[in-house]
Amino acid sequence: MLSGFRIAALDRVAIEAAYESDLPDFEDALQFAAAEESKVDAIVTRNKKHFRQPDIPVWNPEEAVEAIRKA
After folding, report:
1. Dist. CA 65–CA 12, nearest whole Å
2. Is the per-residue pLDDT at 68 higher than 80?
3. pLDDT computed for residue 1 by the predictor
4. pTM (2 decimals)?
5. Percent of the chain with pLDDT over 70
6. What's the CA gap between 66 and 62, in Å, rounded?
7. H or E stretch at 61
8. What is the mean pLDDT of the segment spanning 40-63?
9. CB 41 within 8 A of CB 68
10. What per-residue string of b and e applies to 40-60 under the rule 16 or more CB within 10 Å gives b?
11. How far apart are the C-alpha atoms of 71 and 32, rounded to whole Å?
């Protein structure tokens, strides 16, 4: 499964960006900051409502599977 995915690193830069974020949940802010720093194609989560930034597409698992099938 990992061969088709890029795993975002959670480093000091991402943690500092998450701390400065306006996301309502710190764990979500960590995920978003790490994803943004790693320049991922999308974030996959069951909690899409917490990710309101337009910078990175946010998919639920079903949307991710559909996107992978189309690729």
Report:
1. 31
2. yes
3. 60
4. 0.77
5. 97
6. 6
7. helix 61-70
8. 88
9. no
10. beebbbeeeeebeeeeeebbe
11. 23
